[in-house]
Design goal:
By secondary structure, the chain is an all-beta fold. The chain has no helices and 6 strands. Helix content is 0%, strand content 55%.
Length: 58
């Protein structure tokens, strides 16, 4: 997608996410649409954390 800010054109990265269509439908401004469920990636738990140079764990 092409954008312009203060006369300078730039290309913005498109952040796409994977989504699965569900059986649910909705209506917005008189038009029907199918809802989608985003897949959330699980974050790995950090075994060793650092705060101001000091290592600790949960």
């Amino acid at each position: 997608m092409q954008f312009t800010y203060r006369g300078t054109a730039y290309q913005a990265p498109i952040a796409g996410i994977d989504a699965l269509e569900t059986e649910q439908t909705g209506t917005f401004l008189g038009r029907s649409y199918k809802m989608k469920q985003a897949q959330v990636a699980r974050r790995q738990a950090a075994n060793a954390l650092t705060y101001r140079g000091v290592r600790y764990s949960r």
